[in-house]
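TA notes, week 10

Several of you asked for a full example with nothing omitted. So below is the full record: structure tokens for the whole chain, then the designed sequence directly under it. When grading your own attempts, check the secondary structure regions first.
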């Protein structure tokens, strides 16, 4: 796999994989619905003071004060480098694309 990735492809990885579904079903982080929001266990501080935003497709930890995208989350949860996270997400993106075609 390449070590350089096209900016448009990285944009697709960050935005075309629904973040809440990805967190719950692919990463398997503990999650719950609280106060009308999808919450997940932050991989940094291990607290549930989190939320996701559908429009931006970002996850946010309000305790750590960090916004996280799919690439960031894979790097944190699986403890891999950027290139490995992108390669992993490439496979996940194919799965989501195939689901949309059906």
């Amino acid at each position: 796999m390449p070590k350089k990735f096209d900016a448009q492809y990285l944009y697709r990885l960050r935005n075309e994989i629904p973040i809440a579904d990805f967190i719950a079903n692919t990463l398997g982080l503990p999650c719950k619905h609280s106060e009308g929001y999808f919450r997940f266990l932050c991989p940094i501080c291990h607290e549930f003071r989190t939320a996701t935003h559908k429009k931006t497709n970002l996850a946010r930890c309000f305790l750590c004060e960090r916004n996280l995208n799919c690439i960031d989350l894979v790097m944190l949860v699986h403890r891999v480098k950027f290139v490995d996270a992108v390669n992993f997400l490439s496979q996940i993106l194919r799965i989501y694309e195939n689901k949309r075609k059906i």
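The chain has four helices and five strands. Use that as a sanity check on your answer.
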